[in-house]
Amino acid sequence: MKKFFFSFIIMMSLMAITSVQAASFKLGDIDWSLGGSIRLDTGLRSTDLGDKPKTVEATTQQRYFLENPGDSRIITTAKYDKINGHIELGLKTDNSGNGGTNDNRVNIRKAYLTYDFGGGNTLLIGRTYSLLSEDSPTQYMWQGDCLQSFGDLYSGKNDQIQYNYDINKMSFKIALEANKTDSADAFGLDKNKYLIKDVIPSLIASFSFSDFGFTVTPSAFVQKYELESNASNVKNIDILSYAGALDALYKTNMIAVSGELWYGQNIYFYGLDLRINASTAMGKPIKNAKGDDLINIKSMGGWLQFALTIDPVIFRIGGGFQQADTEKTGARDENKISTWGTFVNLDYEIAKGFIVAPEIAYFDYGKDANKDQFGTDKNKLGSETFVGLHFQYDF
């Protein structure tokens, strides 16, 4: 680990000093380019345990961190006639300070081909960002989470077939993706009684319109799969997930205001599963009282960010909030659970492509669905505060 970070820092410094930039070259009839982004975070992470027993995280309530946030990358593109290829390799580091295993590895962030039919029509096949709620705030600490699980509905990078149609100031996209599923035991059911059966693939669509500095992008998705019974006395269970999101941006040369609102059902599969030591995951279907079916869970949330650019500085402030029903009606149950986060950061470009960004970020986990999770009337899940520096070199 120490060798990795030592090499990491030296590489960033050398690139900044020598002003290394993306390389473009031609092999035969194919135009190639090679670039990337190298990132590093360091600072102080402080944990408020809320009502949780101090033994839960006694050794990690306050610690300094030095980490690859997980989104450093090397990017290769190739173009031949109407065909474009894109491969993006992530340089991922799990570290013990965040519950990892000190395992350095390379992973595929993106890998896709596009074919341009002309007239604004493009077909994409491969792995890239989902069309659902594509925008995110620029928040760095905690491995570049961008308020994920604290207001930002992040649906990740998925294998897909995507069709794009662009005309003037409008863009329409539609994609088919493999379903995101979980086995019966994830919902408290007997996994030996059910098999996973896809009913329809995940269908996602988005529409974008830009003019006069404004960009508005509504998007939506729906997926359905079945827990198929393999016992004669147990019925099949359908799990229907859907969501709608509205992203908006207003941008001038100096200011940018962006945000997102979303609402959905059973979107535990799409980025809402973060609950630290909690009895209920947000947006996750739960079994009914008889234990023979699942109860659908509704969720909602959003985020807002303001950015001011005065070259070579970009100042940002933002925050997000999300909430989910629990469908629990007991006297000692919360009927809603929520999380929220806020941040302020400052990008300072010290060389071409090389920024240093101080940031303060705060994340609140809210309350557990069980009002007595940690004792009578004790169910606060605590919070995290980060004060640190983000280093990034794009080439």
What kind of sheet is the major sheet?
A: 16 strands, antiparallel, barrel
Number of strands: 20
Share of helix, binned: under 10%
**N-to-C span:** 24 Å
Question: What would you say about this model in short?
Answer:
With 395 residues, the protein is mostly beta strands. It is built from 2 helices and 20 strands.
Give an overview of the whole structure:
Helix content is 5%, strand content 56%. Strand 18 and strand 19 form a beta hairpin. Mean pLDDT is 88; it is low at 1-19 and 95-102. It has helices at 2-18, 141-144, and strands at 23-27, 30-48, 62-67, 72-80, 83-93, 104-118, 121-129, 157-167, 170-177, 194-211, 214-229, 237-251, 255-265, 286-287, 294-295, 298-310, 313-325, 336-351, 354-364, 383-394. The protein is built from two helices and 20 strands.
What labels would you give this structure?
395 residues; mainly beta; 16-stranded antiparallel β-barrel; two-stranded antiparallel sheet; 2 helices; 20 strands; 5% helix; disordered N terminus
SSE inventory with pairings:
Elements: H1 2-18, E1 23-27, E2 30-48, E3 62-67, E4 72-80, E5 83-93, E6 104-118, E7 121-129, H2 141-144, E8 157-167, E9 170-177, E10 194-211, E11 214-229, E12 237-251, E13 255-265, E14 286-287, E15 294-295, E16 298-310, E17 313-325, E18 336-351, E19 354-364, E20 383-394
Antiparallel strand pairs: 1-2, 2-3, 2-4, 2-20, 4-5, 5-6, 6-7, 7-8, 8-9, 9-10, 10-11, 11-12, 12-13, 13-16, 14-15, 16-17, 17-18, 18-19, 19-20
